[in-house]
């Protein structure tokens, strides 16, 4: 089943426009949405969840429009926002009781397990908790409803390295069932290096890349050489370029470099390197947009 489908979505603000031509996430997979701060990650997620009204386009969750069967879809949807909306005057155990009343699939044992793992004090008021602990609570609440689709906006914001590692392990366990899917927005590439099945990169409000994690190393490469040798590479082969007075690094498709690869250093890109080559905008860099 297609858990999430986005087509021709647009949203315009005074100094920013979101334009997403197509996005598809099938059940059983984790898709990471990578982008710098301000790239459009949160706007896209808010449009998907109908928290912000899109101007045009189509959003389907479980192959239905969100507003077609909103209550039923929400029963299958877990959400963690970058700034969690949790009443500060309540205690975690009180929020649990509210959630339990709304969600038929609520799992008390899983909630307790996650709260114990994250060391969340159930008796403190939420405004007394640290930012990281509130985020952990939001994650525990979202997972305890046993959702079929988990939508996460910067969920590791404020988490320490130990908690981030625990969270990644939880995600891996979550999608072991082929019926589950995760759409995970972040700007911390290390969080998704080994957990994402698909990587989507958004920059300036547009999707500049979306494919499987494996395709990054299977289909692309980093070509390195002396600056005065760069002209030997056909410009049509270069997707993105970083060049200084002494050397250059070019992101290329592997199929385009076969004729000259013996003349340069050719390396497989990590997800982080691939991502940085696409979105960095330093004054001394020349960046050619991926098409």
UniProtKB/TrEMBL annotation:
SUPFAM superfamilies: P-loop containing nucleoside triphosphate hydrolases (SSF52540). The keyword Nucleotide-binding applies. PROSITE patterns: ABC_TRANSPORTER_2 (PS50893). This is ABC transporter related protein. It comes from the Bacteria. Gene3D superfamilies: P-loop containing nucleotide triphosphate hydrolases. GO terms for molecular function: ATP binding; ATP hydrolysis activity. It comes from Caldicellulosiruptor hydrothermalis (strain DSM 18901 / VKM B-2411 / 108). PANTHER family: ABC TRANSPORTER ATP-BINDING COMPONENT, ABC TRANSPORTER ATP-BINDING PROTEIN ALBC-RELATED. InterPro entries: AAA+_ATPase (IPR003593), ABC_transporter-like_ATP-bd (IPR003439), ABC_Transporter_VariousFunc (IPR051782), P-loop_NTPase (IPR027417). Keywords: ATP-binding, Nucleotide-binding, Transport. Pfam families: ABC_tran (PF00005). CDD domains: ABC_DR_subfamily_A. Residues 4-229 form the ABC transporter domain.
